[in-house]
Amino acid sequence: MAPNAKRVFYVKYLSSPVYGQVIAQRPDVQLDRLENESPDEVATPILSAAHVYQAGASRQVIAPHFHATPVLLDRTPNLIAVSSNGAGYDPVDVDACTARGIIVVNQSGGNKEAVAEHALAMMLTLSKRIIETDRRMRAGPDIVRNAYVGRELVNRTIGVIGIGNVGGRLAELCRGLFNMRVLAYDPYLTADQIKARGAEKVELDDLLRQADFVSINCPLTRESRYMIGAREFALMRPDAYFVTTARGFIHDENALVEALAAKRIAGAGLDVWEEEPPPHDHKLMAFDNVLLSPHTAGATVESRENMARIAAEQVLDILDGKRPPRLINPEVWPAYRERFAGIMGFTPEG
Amino acid sequence: MAPNIKRVFYVNHVSAPIFLEILGQRPDIQVDKLVNDSPDDEADPVVTRAHAFQMSSTRQELAPKYHGTTALLERMPNVVLLSTTGAGYDTVNLADCTRAGVAAVNQAGGNKEGVAEHVMAMMLSLSKRIMLTDHAMRRGEQRPRREYMGDDVLGRTIGIIGIGNVGSRVAELCRGLFRMRVLAYDPYLTEAQVTARGAEKVATLDDLLRQADYVSINCPHTAETRGMIGAREYALMQPHAYFITTARGGIHDEPALADALRAKQIAGAGLDVWDDEPPAPDHPLLAFDNVLLSPHTAGITRQSRQNIARIAAEQMLDVLDGKRPPRLLNPEVWPAYCDRFERIMGFRPEG
Predict the structure, then answer these.
(1) What ipTM score was computed for the predicted complex, to two decimals?
(2) Which of A236, B101, B115, B246 has the largest CB neighbor count within 10 A?
(3) Across A35-108, where does the E strand assignment appear?
(4) Nearest 5 degrees, angle CA A306-CA B180-CA B169?
């Protein structure tokens, strides 16, 4: 028999109040909030009854006992889904969820506009040398403007490494607004698929040799870890800029310091770091031609609302027995259908 | 009698070597170079014989004795053309030129891409709060990321003051893939003309200031625009809105802007132009983290320099060959100009 209330819980925070507003339109769904410090007598009944865990995407903010690991899953016998607030899902043990027939979903693409705009902002601001002039003007008198002749984006070449949600939007902006040539390195997509996203498929070395701007837009995986090191920076053109809004550890920070110090590249825009936030004495902060942000590319008012809205909609789809659009562990599906039927009293579609 | 050689000079530098390359293809044209402090015995013969003067648009770069005023024109009995290197013509007194029968031209539009991209760079960097985080990180501040939450530009509203060459390109960039609403204030254009440039004409400046998330100044500095944006205008802007100018200093009131920023009446500013250029390091506007600064470099990109140098050389050849230039700043001079040209060059210009 179907339960009267479908139960969703979260710990400490949601992306935006929009999440609660969307859920509240459904009287059959109850949303509970826990704190990292909630005592067991409060937490246990909520965990025992929960069907969906709306989980924070950051390991630092959510206490370890609320990470979606076997320890927590032992306390949630009615759970069918873990939904991450963001594109990342670091606090979720996907294998442990799969082993129990629990689906894991994320909100990838929900902040693609924000991240693509951030990458483009960095490209423009570096290329127009605005950050160099800003620093120089604050530091002392008599700046010579002719020493800061910049370059335009129009008709130039960008190399996008990883042409998914963000990379695809960045390609669209560069091509559409500035008539740029867009090269893409993405071993998971065919030449035709890349062409459909508005870019030319190339190998990584060719991309690095040809691009005026190199933008990293792929996830951090075993394959992409330290993909951009000393050898790769050496292939880049001396007038080219390196921009990353993806994840730390894909580029080698020490190698980037050396490339900048040796003027092997023109500058860099860095939103992601091996240690976040990076320490104040980080060597990359010593360069005037480096533009810094502390992993804020995706954090805009609009993307938070968008992420919250699509997260809530996806959770309602799940509770209604539909197949969610952003499923991380599709291999779980047959086991999930059985678990879902046992808990919810009906079998999901698909 | 017509001169065998048409003489052109410039002071200090040209925008790009292509200017000299284009003129160099013409055996009937001689180009001389002077510098701000060339000695008189070297400068006088060049100035006296010159038919055309290719000059800086920036007052600070050019010695006052080379500004296009009556004092200079009286030393130039053979001149027919003053040509500035940029869109600006602060270095030329148009009334003095007209009185003397001398044509003044600029290179408006030649750097529109460079300037429009500068506006976009500032708009995006401010909206994404990148400079704010950059300053904070270099100072060693570590605040929660949500305190630096920015705004996407997608779907928001820009107000463009003056929708000419640069303003139209900004409108195109904002409307296209960012699907922004584009408002324009431009009393010199009809509603139909503004629509053709991709914007909605607002009835008053106040309407634009009240509605825009980003305000961009893209009009020339004239008697009408001087001081157009002051305390009253900043007060009309939304508290989350950004003010961006790549036009000219003097159109916005700098002390009023500093007051508006201090009172958080607006969210920040991107400033490429200044009352005094470059501004002194103790200028109050240099103290804000939410202000992005550049020293009048929006229009100086390699591509813009190249483009401006090319169109400046082509326009100068047109003039020396007796054609009407496409970027004439003082059209009212034309009848007097034709007389002067004919007297000096030995033939009458077209048109």
Answers:
(1) 0.88
(2) B115
(3) 52-55, 81-84, 103-105
(4) 140
* CA dist list (Å): B60 to B38, B64, B153: 17, 9, 35
Shortest CA distance from B301: residue in chain A:
A150
Q: Output the six-digit token pair for A24.
A: 């509240």
For residues A257 and B110, the answer to whether their CB atoms sit within 8 Å is no
Told to judge if A35 belongs to the known catalytic residues of this protein, a careful annotator would answer no
Residues in chain B, overall count: 351
Query: Are the CB atoms for A269 and A291 separated by under 8 Å?
Result: yes
Beta bridge partners of A29: A6
Residues A90-121: pLDDT tens digits?
889 999 999 999 999 999 999 999 999 999 99
Report the C-alpha gap between A271 and A250 in whole angstroms.
12
User: What gap in Å lies between CA B229 and CA B257, rounded to an integer?
Assistant: 9
A37 is catalytic: no
Interchain contact, B293 vs A291, CB within 8 Å: no
d(CA A120, CA A30): 41
Q: End-to-end CA distance of chain A, in Å?
A: 21
pTM: 0.89
Helix or strand holding residue B340 (H, E): helix B334-345
User: What is d(CA A84, CA A344) in angstroms, rounded to the nearest whole number?
Assistant: 21
In order of A182, B98, B249, the CA distances from B95 in angstroms are 49, 5, 22
- Cis peptide leading into residue B278 (ω within 30°): yes
> In b/e form, how buried is each residue of A43-55, taking b as 16+ CB within 10 angstroms?
beebbebbbbbbb
- What does residue A341 show for φ and ψ, rounded to 5 degrees? -60, -40
Phi, psi of A137 (to 5 degrees): -70, -35
Task: Name the residue among B270, B283, B300 with its Cα closest to residue B132.
Answer: B270
Distance between CA atoms of residues A11 and A349, nearest Å: 29
> Across the strands, what pairs with A161?
A185, A216
**Catalytic positions of B, written as ranges:** 248, 277, 296
pLDDT digits (tens, 9 = 90+) for A285-305: 999 999 999 999 998 999 999
Contacts of A63 (CB under 8 A, 6+ apart): A11, A36, A37
Chain B residues 72-101 within an 8 A CB cutoff of chain A = none
Q: Where are the alpha helices (DSSP H) in chain B?
A: 17-24, 40-49, 70-73, 94-100, 112-127, 130-139, 165-175, 191-196, 205-211, 231-236, 254-262, 302-320, 334-345
